[in-house]
Amino acid sequence: MFVCQVIHRGLSVLVAPDNVTIISKNLLSILYWSPVTAENWTVHYRVQYKLSHDNKWSWTDIETCNPTNKTECNFTSAIRASFTVNLRVRAESGTDFSSWSETESFCALNETVIGPPNVNLIPGKRAMTVVASVPPSLKNEYKDHLKYSVVSFKKDDPMKKVGFRLQKSPILFEDLVPWTRYCVNVSIVISKFTELKTVPKKECTDILEDEETKSIKLLVISVLIPIGVIAMVIGCLFLVKKNYGHIKHLLLPVWEVPNHIQQFLAEPSYEFCEMPLSSYSREEPCDTITVLLEID
């Protein structure tokens, strides 16, 4: 039985992995592929790379992924982001292995997806400070080429831009309307790599009022409140004077005797007379009843 299994295994051909693709985000690069199955046998995968357009460079194993039973390989630490490379992967099961599946040329520095950045909004007095940051790997690779594109707008009117900045963090927006909610869309811009795809980040905050505006508001409130109280008192006195009769009628209503009671009291009083006892008929005597019993 064991010999038959070995012969069958030697004759079997593993299928090469398909759907081989590279996904890179913020210079974190991972190779993915679809799983390969082999009946009754465990399948592992081997991943290699070489520099593109350099025939002298031989294929080299990526040690962190050889062998691996996963269907992915994180090669970020194995290959510099500035290198243009080709990668390939194959399935292995004991002494059996598939053909290689190879990728197109790839350079993380030129093809990674950037963003979204970390954004912190600091509201101030009629102002707003945008503090943006990126992972250290991006900052180390792109250095001075890295800037931020910031578009500000009112939340209730997102189509109208209030301000735009293209500079390094932090970024200050001034002369904003107090007690208004402002939002920003922040994107990372790499001046030397303009074709990079970027993912923006949206954040919102409420703008505070400055001391001058606050003082004016307190002064207006302190003046308007007494005026409002005086106006209410005068208005109440005017209404009382104008509607005095109605108010008096509501507070002190005049009670009147109902009409049917007035009519009853206006009629002469009734006298009740007792009839003399002599007027009652005397009780007539009862007839005599005789009962006869017959005795044998």
TrEMBL record:
SUPFAM superfamilies: Fibronectin type III (SSF49265). It comes from the Eukaryota. The keyword Endoplasmic reticulum does not apply. InterPro entries: FN3_dom, FN3_sf, Ig-like_fold, Interferon/interleukin_rcp_dom, Type-II_Cytokine-TF_Rcpt. The keyword Membrane applies. One of its GO terms (molecular function) is cytokine receptor activity. GO terms for cellular component: plasma membrane. Residues 16-111 form the Fibronectin type-III domain. One of its GO terms (biological process) is cytokine-mediated signaling pathway. The chain crosses the membrane at residues 218-240. Keywords: Membrane, Transmembrane, Transmembrane helix. This is Fibronectin type-III domain-containing protein. It comes from Lepisosteus oculatus.
